[in-house]
Amino acid sequence: MKRFLSLLLVALMLLSIVACGNTDEPKVEAPEDDKQEVNETGEVYKVGILAPAVTHGWVAAVAYHAEAEAKAQSDAIEYKIYTSNDAAEMTSQLDDLMTWGAQAIVAFPQWEGMEVPIKEVVDQGVVVVNFDIEIDVDGVYRVTGDNEEMGVRGAEYIVDKIGTEGKVVILDVPTSGSVGRLRKQGFLDTLAKIAPDIETVEYATQFTREDGLKDMADILVSNDHIDAVFSMDDETSIGALQAIAEANRTDIKAITGGGGSQEYFNMMPDNEDIWISSALYSPAMVKDAVKAAVAILKGESVDEVKVIPTNIVDRDNYKDYLDANSPY
Fold first, then answer.
1. DSSP 8-state symbol, 324
2. How far apart are CA 310 and CA 324, in angstroms?
3. Strand order of the sheet with strand 45-52?
4. Taking the CB of the first residue and of the last residue of the chain, which one, N or C, has fewer CB atoms within 10 A?
């Protein structure tokens, strides 16, 4: 018994010596949600992202791509993302981000009346990069597609399909701020140059297929002949096409759109009577806005406005733009 106790004591002493000689402390992995890597400079920046609530597939994709890029930048930033239903809610979220200590904010201020709260943020030294929307505030960076060029290309497309005479319905969206204003301006200015004899009729709608269906149904009742439709949005166009089909109208030869909806792309080859087109305006552009915010915080030079060119998609080239992984 004494021999056994002696051997046990020796073994315990050896274990103690080994343990004391091991200078590496155990590594405890933090939960995945609590991990925050550090960039090369050792600084982690706080970036807020503001987007409208998801009422539209394109807007949903904006939030999706913004967060995807924020996650990709996890070595450089900590981020918070909010969605809002109106200007008041977005303004409140701006206040929350300021309290949190945001150093940069990527905003998609689709609501009218955001100039004052965004100016207050800029005046406090916070970097603001607007996505898509142009507002009258000095010091705001912006990443956008070319809304005016979308109108230009839409006019050129319609004239190519129907000629320099005819009747074109403009599905305007006045509530979209500079987006709709610039698209309509590009369209009308171009028609005035290349097809001044085309008659245009304007109707107000929204960037949803439900409104496109409802409003186009009313338009078809009040217009017994239409040659083409200048729609500014793919979702609106999907609804308008449903109304045209349900009314059995065969007079309309072309309809435009905008945004980059995969569903809309797949409709293009299925209708030989109407040329269906979209001015590509990818929601993935918001990734460039997040990248710009991070670059500015790092002290890098960034253009105040980055404009991404427009491409036209129709039955001739739609396959080049199909993306099975797209959320829109």
1. T
2. 21
3. 77-84, 45-52, 104-107, 127-131, 141-145, 305-308
4. N
Do residues 88 and 182 share a domain?
A: no
| Angle at alpha carbon of residue 222, lines to 221 and 224, rounded to 5° | 80
7: confidence class by pLDDT, cuts 50, 70, 90: very low
More confident residue, 2 or 99: 99
- Count Cα atoms within 13 angstroms, Cβ side, for 105: 30
pTM, two decimals, is 0.69
Task: List the one residue out of 83, 85, 98, 99 whose CA is nearest residue 128.
Answer: 98
Distances (CA, A) of 14 to 1, 7, 23: 20, 11, 16
Give the integer Cα–Cα distance in Å for 110 and 35.
33
- For residue 234, the enclosing domain spans 147-281+316-321
Looking at the 3D structure of the chain, how many domains does it have? 2
DSSP letter assigned to residue 25:
P
Locate 305 and state its tokens. Answer: 């406005």
Helix (H, G, I), strand (E, B) or coil at 79: strand
Residue pLDDT, tens place only, 36-56: 344 455 688 999 999 888 666
18-25: average pLDDT: 34
User: For the segment 168-205, what is each residue's pLDDT rounded down to a tens digit?
Assistant: 999 999 988 878 999 999 999 999 999 999 999 999 99
Residue 276 and residue 227 share a domain: yes
The two three-digit tokens of residue 173, written as one number: 């969206």
Greatest Cα pair distance in the chain: 114
- Are β-strands 127-131 and 104-107 bridged in parallel, bridged antiparallel, or unpaired? parallel
Give the rounded distance of the alpha carbon of 305 from its chain centre.
16
CATH number of the domain to which 137 belongs? 3.40.50.2300
Contact indicator for 198, 167 with CB cutoff of 8 Å: yes
Q: Do 131 and 222 lie in a common domain?
A: no
Query: Are residues 242 and 288 located together in one domain of the fold?
Result: no
